[in-house]
Amino acid sequence: METGVEHNCDRKRQSNILHCELYAPFDISPYALHVPKPQTRWLWWICGEWAYKQLPPKWSGTCFLGWVLPPMWIMPTSSAKRTRRNADISHIAGGSTQSWSDTDDWPPERIIAYYEPASWNPDELIQGARDPIYNLNRIIRLQAVVELVTNATAQSLRLIAQQLDESRAAILQLKMGMDYVLARQGGLCGVLNLTGNACCFNISDNGEAIRVLATKMESIAHVPVQIWEGWDMGWLTNWLPNVAGLKGILLSCLFFLTVVVMVLCTVPCIISCFRSTISKMISNETLPHIMALYRALPQEYD
């Protein structure tokens, strides 16, 4: 290299790199050293962790030409084809087809499948409302419907939050790329002649807040799975002493006394019904004979 300054260059072994130490009383730059100019304005002198358009004064070391790009990436233009999935909401409105015949658990899906929606009683002319047990079961069904609808809404909010996060990241990448391409003109704001607050670019990141609210919605509407454990008859035996064998004897005696009382209460009714039936049969048999023996007496007229 023709520089007009003192220089000391050593070629590295098995390499085409020429290491030079230059000394001059004035600033040294790639142009002063008659180094070939980069063919494009995007090339930089990369020296270790630093990049220069012009080498600093009294510089020494090894550099190479290269591109300088910000930490950004471009998504592939052709992505894998995604199959659209239709959301199945039939269990919310029309019940579920799952069978729970072999279990005692009653989740919301089973409640909706078992109980139909509430309706008026068409056979009742005066009162169209159903009995209290019917209405209570429909309230339980409504509770299950609310839980399923809330869970579906929360899941939809999570999907929307995920899509918003992806859109936010893509928009920020596009903004960064446009600022980089238009850096000579002052970035995107400089090209559009935007100053002050008009150039402020901000996209709120509320995805996590949406997910937290969705979780709270599910926790509020959640009802633990109900398990049918049969009729609770413990109140009949809780008052008995917990002694081995004694409880069984007392229960047997109690059952025997209950049967005796029921028999004593039903026997008079049975006897009364039996007597009434026999009396009706006898009266039906004797009434035709009495009517046949009846004869009207002749009447004398004056």
Automatic annotation (TrEMBL):
PANTHER family: ENDOGENOUS RETROVIRUS GROUP 3 MEMBER 1 ENV POLYPROTEIN, VIRAL ENVELOPE PROTEIN. Pfam families: TLV_coat (PF00429). It comes from Podarcis lilfordi. InterPro entries: TLV/ENV_coat_polyprotein. The keyword tRNA-binding does not apply. It comes from the Eukaryota. Signal peptide: none annotated. This is Envelope glycoprotein. Keywords: Membrane, Transmembrane, Transmembrane helix. The chain crosses the membrane at residues 249-274.
